[in-house]
Request: fold
Amino acid sequence: MKEILEGNICVVDRVNSWRDGVERAGNILLFKNKIEKKYIEAAIKNIEKLGNYIILTDGVAMPHARPEDGALETAVSLLVIKEGVVFSGEEERVKLIFMLASKDNSSHINILRKLSNLIDDDEMIGKLSNSSNEVEILNFL
Reply:
């Protein structure tokens, strides 16, 4: 995950809403030309339509959209929100937002495996959630 996330991490104290969090996580990829703006909009619409299916475990969300919604490359960004953000209908605050973009229907499978191993580790989630910068996060990975 280290090589996948390097250069795609941002740590903030707070966001205004879950939508703002998803947009900020997406902007990391947008500014690197990995996705188009419409990809972020599609990810937000998916959550509005389908609910909080993107919350993988306590404190961790993985918003995404379809490749045809504007994914230019397969990539992942990480937004760490120190105060966390509440998604509609949830009690637990999300502190880690991993924005996933896949250029096709299969190239992201390996990334999902690595991400799954990462979020299955409660200690690692705690370390990432309490990190203050990208260097610290990359050292944990």
Observations:
- The longest helix spans residues 37-50.
- The helical segments are 2-5, 18-30, 37-50, 109-119, 122-129, 134-140.
